[in-house]
């Protein structure tokens, strides 16, 4: 039976050693440690037992955890420290700026919608109001009728909303029945003997027929009567596939806005749209990084710094902001969770959220002062200019994310 030859050892796979030590198996350079200084290849062979690979994996995880411990506390509490360390070449102990910003961005926008939701929207009771006025305020039966007609006007366009399903229609019929019963009971209380309280939805008078939209309204994507299939928007200089995609997005935006304008409980629609907006925000925020770095480059044009240096400042600044958002979302979720078990925790947790809001602008000002090392008057002036421009850029970014969310 032929014998299977054994795998060569690490030393056997290296090129013949010259007097003075071993040489790299890849490029032949003289080795002075566990990695080749010329090509970067490790001395260790990849052909090792499984337990060796497990040891390397555990070592990588432990090293990553150590870098997290060295990165997050100074990122939150020491303005400009990580940026100056990075410029000085001391980078091994800390997470890379882009990785730090990316991970914190994903974590913050994952938890923030849950913190803003404030509970299950399905458990929220529906309250019926009459435009700030109640039937009890009416002094005559005619005034009761006027208030009832005013309130029922919002139910007529419901037939034109394509996203209203059968369950939503049943809920709207119940609300319409409740309003009519309250109105008739008020008329009886005012002495109107002709008033009849309806018992079921079938006893209600039919809704007024919906208006027939004009041709201009049918062609307007902002009008409720618009239909992308019948009246598509066409841009002559765009290819057909882009026109089709644009019309699909416009139809989704149209349906979502129609659902928001329709009567009834909008909490479920709002929660869905909010989730779509927050899903689009992380990608949108990546466009803010080069724009913010460009603002810093313009403000400090005569400091003769490379654009990459300003980009590192932008990465650490955004990483800090995402860390504040993440901590604020965690505090809010903790306050919501402990509201019934330990309500006394709510006040200090909200105080911590307030501290984060106050600390964020102070941190960014101190960071700009320590990194660029200018006097306080010029630092404050440039800080205000950059901040004002950034707020406008952020507003456009959020609007873009909202448009992308509505188009989903």
Termini separation (Å)? 66 Å
Count of DSSP H/I helices? 13
Note the quaternary state here. Answer: single chain
The fraction of residues in strands falls at under 5%
- Uncertain residue ranges: 7-20, 119-132, 159-165
Query: How would you characterize the largest beta sheet?
Result: none
Please characterize this protein's 3D structure.
The protein is mainly α and 408 residues long. It is built from 13 helices and no strands. It has helices spanning 10-13, 50-77, 81-87, 97-117, 141-152, 166-189, 215-218, 240-261, 267-285, 288-299, 307-337, 346-372, 376-406. The chain is elongated, with a radius of gyration of 32 Å. The N and C termini lie far apart (66 Å). Mean pLDDT is 78; it is low at 7-20, 119-132 and 159-165.
What's the SSE blueprint?
Layout: H1 10-13, H2 50-77, H3 81-87, H4 97-117, H5 141-152, H6 166-189, H7 215-218, H8 240-261, H9 267-285, H10 288-299, H11 307-337, H12 346-372, H13 376-406
